[in-house]
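Q: For a teaching handout, I want to show students what a protein-ligand complex looks like in token form. Below are the inputs, and the small molecule is acetyl coenzyme *A. Please produce the holo structure.
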Amino acid sequence: MVRRSLIVGCGTCLPRRSVSNDELARRVDTSDEWITQRTGIRSRYLAEPDETTATLALGAAQAALAHAGIGADRLDLIVLATTTPDHTFPATAVKVQAALGMTGGAAFDVQAVCSGFIYGLAVADNFLRAGQARTALVIGAETFSRLLDWEDRTTCVLFGDGAGAVVLEASEGVGDAGDRGILSTHLRSDGRQYELLWVDGGPSTTRTTGHVRMNGREVFRHAVTRLSEIAEEALAANGLTAADVTWLVPHQANLRIIEATTRKLALPDGRAILSVDRHGNTSAASIPLALGEAVAQGRIRRGDLLLLEAMGGGFTWGAAAVRW
Ligand code: ACO
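A: Here is the structure, written as tokens, with acetyl coenzyme *A included.
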């Protein structure tokens, strides 16, 4: 009997304020035309001072639990992926744990920047497969705008804030559930070129939070190669091909990266779930935000094969194959 993690609920939470490219262009030397053509981003949500990673994460968590129809008392694990914790410590996950009224189990953060949700999903999936937890909440939540240098137009136009969450439940593979759930997860990292995409601060170096610094062209090149490699690996590990994929749920960094990756994978047009136009790059939140929206719209049906993939600072990258 195969023990698998089923995704039994999804939820999202966005800040109140959406900011269009034209609004940004009043504050930064840029234009709607440049941003749209280069990235496909038309607007992004930016957190107000009272909106933090924990408040957004809590909103997504509550929505995911409601969608799953279960109470927080059933949870025995929270894994929260973020690059922008409310505090250096404790983990933002424990703030969410307390706000949900959950006093048992364990809650912790993982940090893999834009790949964070895939990393969190892999960690939780392995806890469930190993029998160390039965019901887990995996959250990707960011207030990435707090890391941006608003004088640097090459980075500040790209990112946004938000959160998404999924509830996982262990299944013993009874009935058709044996074919459903997270089929496999695949994680990679390579720290040799971390300065191609990093934050130039931190408690142990500058004692400041720092700002995002990026070599956009190099990141683009690495992203397309790494993402298609890891996506192929996830398919091959399950004896599947691109033709089997119902939906690609990619990290929403940039429409051109998504299009180049789908071309490399030879996926037919229209198979990628897209939200980058309205969310920008929300780092660890981007995949669960895109997934949660697509589920709420009824686009994802039981039996669909989903391929999730992401790449981020580090570099880190990863993929997951999921039978819905
Ligand atoms: N508005 C207007 N002009 C701009 C802006 C802006 N916001 N930013 C840069 N420019 C100008 C540059 O100054 C440059 O001008 P110049 O030719 O006079 O010197 C020109 O636009 C071209 O700049 P490039 O950096 O060469 O532009 P490029 O075509 O590479 O596009 C971009 C930049 C969009 C950042 C691209 O490299 C990219 O998408 N990279 C991937 C980065 C990414 O997605 N990172 C997210 C994190 S990683 C991940 O999630 C996968």
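A: Two things your students might notice: The first helix runs from residue 21 to 25. Residues 134 and 170 are 5 Å apart (CA to CA).
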